Predict the 3D structure of the following.
Amino acid sequence: MGDSRESEATHDMFQSEFFKAALSNQREYDKSILTLSSGLIAAAVLFINAILSKGYCISHYGFLIVALWLWVIAIVTVLLGFQLSANNYIDALFIARNQGDFVAGKLDSRARFVEKLNYASGLFFFLGVLAFVILASLNIHY
């Protein structure tokens, strides 16, 4: 009987630490995408300001609009993923305390959805950078 309780306590402690580590990693990823996307939006504004202040006009400004929208979408998907991840963490703790592994499949599918959101936010960020690099290369005047 004592070994079973110790085993459950160890399992619960491991599960709690696992969820804390996963949430911490998620937060760091989210912070990186948010910081980089916000910074690149500011850099885009400065780049455009520098071009316009020299009297040049911006060609292919569609790339700018696409880049800005992609970064905004990256920020929104990060925020959505963060919220869903936090909800999953709370639900997992509730289930672990009250119901065991009764609905683990539901949490796994939600966790996979959050993982897909993370990949999507990274993809939107990368595509935004690509669009901005194309814009910059088309508008650099020597």
Summary: The chain has one domain: 23-139. Residues 23-139 form one domain.
